[in-house]
Amino acid sequence: MDKIRVGMIGLGARGMGLLKGVILHMKDVEVVAVCDKYEDRCDEAAGAVAETGIARPFATLDYRELLALKNIDAVVIGASWADHAEVAIAAMEAGIYTACEVGGAYSVQECWRLVETYERTRVPVMIMENCCYGRDEMMVLNMVKQGLFGEIVHCAGGYHHDLRDEIAYGRENRHYRLDNYIHRNCENYPTHEIGPIARVLNINHGNRMVSLVSMASKSKGMQEYIRNQKSNDTELMQTEFMQGDIVTTIIKCAHGETITITLDTTLPRYYSRGFTVRGTKGMYIEENQSIFMDGTHDELHFDWKEQWGNVEQFREQYDHPVWKKFMQEGVKGGHGGMDWLVFADFFDCVRKGTNTPLDVYDMATWMCISTLSEESIALGGHPVAIPDFTNGKWITR
Predict the structure, then answer these.
(1) CA 257, CA 49: separation in Å to the nearest integer?
(2) Are residues 210 and 291 in the same domain?
(3) Per the domain annotation, does 186 fall within a domain?
(4) CATH number at residue 390
(5) Does residue 314 form part of some domain?
(6) Given this model, what pLDDT does residue 29 score?
(7) Residue 293 sits in the same domain as residue 383
(8) Mean pLDDT, the chain, integer
(9) Domain boundary residue among 70, 97, 128?
(10) pLDDT of amino acid 304
């Protein structure tokens, strides 16, 4: 196809950012329809498309009207967390390739519905986990596949991002995080960290996650922030937040590996995803941009601070081929180029009519961590089984 005709569903900060920063700059993609439940967002998106010199797209407040159009090849879902599964299922049933933004699930049942809908319709859906396309994440994956770290034993990661301002002004900005932090206590945003780890550990492709335990700290960060920064908001001043400030989740895998992921979004801190890989021959740690190799760095065991930040020494030899090509062509798109790469992969699948690299089984497996962590926390850290959404196919996929 000369042009992939795309519908955008959900045009808040993320959806509009993708539209203006990525999709409108892709030469083989044309946005023909936009949808949001707020009319002003629809108007802004339609205007942004028209400013590129193409026809003003169809605009609607009802995503079902968009999915009923006959000229849509793919949809991009950037709506709220609670709407992802419902809209993705409807898009698959309409026979439309589906790109769905990230977030956690609200029930295991909705994850099964995603899988069952795909298996009935065979319409691909891709979870748009851009961190799987990060330069360091892909270089480390390349090193793991080449055996540089030996047998992988443990991985860690987290969503470490001070979101107090975004949460506190959720009403003003029509952002869904505020209600989630008031009413839920869970690992609410697991996919940024679990996505790259899942690729390292071959999850759903020869390995799987079998159980988890989660614990949450007390919730004090948002109350402190509102007291200091938004004390004129009488409603929020009296609100008790359910969401713990720090949520720690430990996952056990079928082949014995462990994973630790951490949610840390309501206390003052710097941004980090904490990506860490530990193997029998070495380790990678994002926090100080370091690689430690057995037999090479052993003499620095106690003086390792002098070697922190040595990742660039490995770049020329182990940079992932995707990123080598991307650097030569010129990095573009949001989040340091990750957004461009994940959407380039998705649209390439639409063009070729193939399945997506991050598929419905990945989507269900990664998203279900939220609702399972919620259950484990409510039970005082009780172990909870993680469903096998592949129904045993993970062994040979």
Answers:
(1) 47
(2) yes
(3) yes
(4) 3.30.360.10
(5) yes
(6) 97
(7) yes
(8) 96
(9) 128
(10) 67
Provide the pLDDT for residue 312: 94
Q: Are 273 and 192 in contact (CB under 8 A)?
A: yes
Two structure tokens written together for 275: 């990506």
Residue 345: per-residue pLDDT = 98
Contact 324, 315 (CB under 8 A): no
Residue 303 has pLDDT above 90, yes or no: no
Flag whether pLDDT at 287 surpasses 90.
yes
Q: Do 57 and 76 belong to one domain?
A: yes
Q: What's the one-letter identity of residue 56? A: R
Mean pLDDT for the stretch of residues 315-331: 97
Among 128, 163, 192, identify where a domain stops: 128
